[in-house]
Each structure stands twice: as structure tokens, then as C-alpha cells.
Amino acid sequence: MAIETELLILGGGTGGYVAAIQAAKAGMDVVLIEQDKLGGTCLHRGCIPTKALLRSAEVMGTLKEAGDFGIDVSDAVQVNFTKVNERKQAIVDQLHDGVQGLMKKNKIKVVHGKGAVLGPSIFSPVSGAVAVTFDDEDKEEEIYVSKKLIIATGSSPATLPHLPLDEETILSSTGMLQLEELPESIAIIGGGVIGVEWASLLHGLGVEVTVFEALDRLIVNESKTVSKALKKQFEKRGIKVELSQLVEGVDKTDGRVKLSVKGKDAPMDFDKVMVAIGRKPNVEGIGLQNTSVKYDAKGIQVNDHYQTTESHIYAIGDCINTLQLAHVAMKEGELAVEHMIRETSEPINYLNVPRCTYTTPEIASVGYTKETLPEGRKVKVGTFNFNGNGKALIHGNSEGFVEVLRDEETDDLIGMSIIGPHATDLISEASTAIYMNATPLEIGEAIHPHPTLSEGIMEASLDVYKLAVHK
To answer: Quick check: 181 and 175 in contact, CB under 8 A?
Structure first.
């Protein structure tokens, strides 16, 4: 016997559970299917636990520099990785409890099992029913039939054939979070967001880190000036950066790993290797082959309203070919539900989604960078260095800068990049300004409190017009 509901959501990560809450608040009857824990990758294997580790690394860095602030730390400062992990897990558990509470508060039925989409069957004349199986072999399969279906199955770490993951010596980001002891040395394959965040936190906790990137710079989705500044800061801190280096193979011997790198005469020896070359959408093994929904290695194909080729089936988050960011998945979930209810929604301009990298120093950007500008588009650039900012100097963290792009024709703010203290918090001002079609002058003329890091944004915005006061 099939269980009927108005909306069925396959996947309880950030996109799935936010969509469920939005639909429930609108009065829809919602069932959410999740095979693991609510919150998905972001809460349990990504955003939250890694930022908790980064915070511990930041505290360690502050203690090491305490003498610069006139604070004498007599005893040697040490990392207790067991307690670091306990703190990380406590934060995850508290947020997980909160998500479960939201499901109960909004009367959302949560089914813990593995779901697979069915094609037309005796249960439904169209695709979209979902069969749920359970780890408990004594529990019978359940069939759910709904008017609408949202697929929000997320993504998994990607790897290459010559870098086989064993999650012991060759690890993904998932395996890294299971470590009970810190290695003495690690090679990180990939200099994108995941790779550089792990490089920053591991080095901060005392690990010898080498980053290998096949391309000619780190974080290629950011501006070249930001990439250059990050590399400089990494090397200043003692993180080794190997650019334009292709890792060709690994050899595991006696619990250690030897990396063969193209162009290098001898293998390089490490305790651990982390593969951080990106993530792949979870589209296999969820029953899509039973439907006419189109998908490929890049993800499920959707229109601007997140409808698949079967209009009653939607897909959001990492399993579609958009930015793999938690805040993007959340917004996509909201808009998918809005379209179901109102038959319309405002498409996301993905260019204007804030992008954040939680290294030390932090990096954040929104809109265009100088490298991504359309051909022929003329801009004026304004900059301001944090070494001229009082709050940054007070905090002892004045490396970095703000870079602002102004469209010469329209006078609009069309891009901002920040590398420096609290960049990921500061970027929201730029994101809001772009959303409101503000000009850099409007940002610059708005009164910013002193002393704050936000003055860097004000000064860089004024610098577009050569009006910066402190430059």
C-alpha cells in the first residue's frame, strides 16, 4: 500500500530540509526522506565541522602570537586534538538537534531510509513515486506517492583512478573529519576552496602541509590578485605550495605514502594524502534511470525554476549543475517551493551569489572579478589595503585588501573581492548592494562606524572615484 503526501523530498541536507520547512509553512503536507542524518554534508561532513576546526587553529595562532599583544604565555601551547574534535562534534550535535526540532515544529514527517525514484507503476501513472528501503532487514519497503517531488541528494567527494581513496592514508574531506590523531605531514591534492581551507587549518594545528595544484594558481575562481596574495600568505606561514604540478601516482608503504609528481626525479614522502579535487553530484543509484529525467555527470538538468524534464519533479542543490554552496542549495529549495505554490519564481543570478573561503586570511567575493568580465565591458577598479585600517591593526591582522569593480557605463557596483580578516562576514554588504543596484559611491557615502573593518569597503568604494580619504 502506498503512502500519499503532497510533497516528497528526497534528501535532508541544507537544500532539502529548508525546502521542507518552506513548504510546511505554506500549508503543504511534507514527507522528507534521508538515508543518513538531517543536515547532510554541510552540517556533518563539510561547512560546520571544518569551520569548527578552523576556529581551533585560529585560536592556536592567536596564542602563538600572544607576545605581540603584550601577553606572556609561560607554558608551551599544545594542541589537544581529542578536545578539538569533541568541541567540533558538540557544535554539530547542537545544530543537528535544532534541525530535528524544526522538523517536529513544522510537522514534517521524516523517514530515515534509502529512497529510489520509481517510474510509472501501479502506485502512480507518472514517475516520481519513491521506494524506501531500510537498514533493518525486518522492516518492509515503503512506497511514497506525492503530487510533487524535490530531489536534493547532494554530492560526494571526487577522486581520480590513480588516487584511490581508502580513507586511512589517502583521504577525502569526509575521511579527514574522522581522524583521531593529526599526522606529522600531509599532501593536499587540489588548491581549490576545500584544499586551501584544509591546508590552513591543518597547518594552524601544527601539521606540515604541502599543496599540489595542477593549474598555475590557487583558487582559480577568485581574482589573480587574491590568488597571489593567498599564496604569499601561505608561504609566509610555512605552507608549501606547488603550482603547475601534476601528481601521477601514489605508493602506500608501511602506513606512509609516496607521491610521484610529474617532472620530479624522486617520489615525495608523506604521512597522509588528502584528495581535494572537487565533488560529484549524487545522481546514480537513486532511480533516475526509471524516469525520463535528464541527467549526466554534471548533475540533473533543470530549468530556471528547478523543474526537471518531468515538470512535477524538481531538483536542487549539489545534484544539479549550479554552485555547490549550502546557501545556494537553501535558496534553490525556497524558490522550487515558491514555484510549486505560485507557478512563478525569480531566477537566481548565480554571478551575484557570495563566494567564501575560510582560510587564514579569509577570502570572499561577489559579482565579477577582473578575469571574468565580459569582453568589452569597461570598469574602474578601487582598492584599499587593510594595513591602513585601524581595526585590522588593532587585531594584529592587517594583511589583505578590498577590491571594488564599477561599471563605467552604468556606474553600478558589479564586483567586490576581499582577502583579509572577517572577509566572509564583510561580503554581505557588497552582496546586498549589488542586489539593490547600488553604486560604489552610495556605499562610500554611507557612514561606516569607526574603527571597523567595514571601513575598508567604504574606502575601496570611494577609491573607484579617486575619493578615498585614507589612501
So the answer is: no
Distance in angstroms (rounded) separating the CA atoms of residues 342 and 370: 38
pLDDT of amino acid 74:
75
Residue 137 confidence (pLDDT): 85
Whether residue 75 is predicted with pLDDT greater than 80 in this model: the reply is no
Confidence of residue 73 (pLDDT cuts 50, 70, 90): confident
Do β-strands 185-189 and 272-275 pair in parallel, antiparallel, or remain unpaired? parallel
SS3 50: helix
pLDDT-based confidence at 97, cuts 50/70/90? very high
Mean pLDDT of the chain: 96
In the structure grid, which three cell numbers stand for residue 440, read together?
560604489
CA distance 123 to 145: 7
Amino acid identity of residue 429, one-letter, is E
- The maximal CA–CA distance of the chain, rounded, in angstroms, is 75
Q: Can you point out the beta strands (E) in 301-361?
A: 313-315, 355-357
Residue 254 has pLDDT above 90, yes or no: no
Do β-strands 170-171 and 272-275 pair in parallel, antiparallel, or remain unpaired? parallel
CB 313 within 8 A of CB 288: no
The reported pLDDT for the residue numbered 306 is: 98
Q: Which among 382, 353, 384 is positioned nearest to 367, based on CA atoms?
A: 353
Could you tell me if 11 and 151 are in contact, meaning their C-beta atoms sit under 8 angstroms apart? yes
Specify the DSSP class assigned to residue 39: B
Which residue out of 305, 327, 450, 470 is catalytically annotated?
A: 450
Residues 413, 415: Cα–Cα separation, whole Å: 6
CA-CA distances (angstroms) from residue 408 to 163, 198, 367, 403? Answer: 47, 39, 15, 16
Per DSSP, 374 falls in state P
In whole angstroms, what is the distance from residue 21 CA to residue 132 CA?
21
Phi then psi for residue 406, to 5 deg, are: -120, 130
Length of the chain: 471
Stretch 90-119: mean pLDDT, rounded?
98
8 Å CB contact between 16 and 333: yes
How confident is the model over 367-403, as pLDDT tens digits? 999 999 999 999 999 999 999 999 999 999 999 999 9
Whether 450 sits among the annotated catalytic residues: the reply is yes
All cell numbers assigned to 25 = 509553512
Rounded mean pLDDT, 229-237: 97
- In which region does residue 452 sit, left (phi positive, over 0), alpha (psi from -120 to 50) or beta (all else)? beta
Give the C-alpha separation, 64 to 44, whole Å: 30
DSSP symbol at 70: T
Q: Which amino acid is at 341?
A: I
> CA Rg, the chain, in Å?
24
Cα 414 from Cα 406, distance rounded (Å): 6
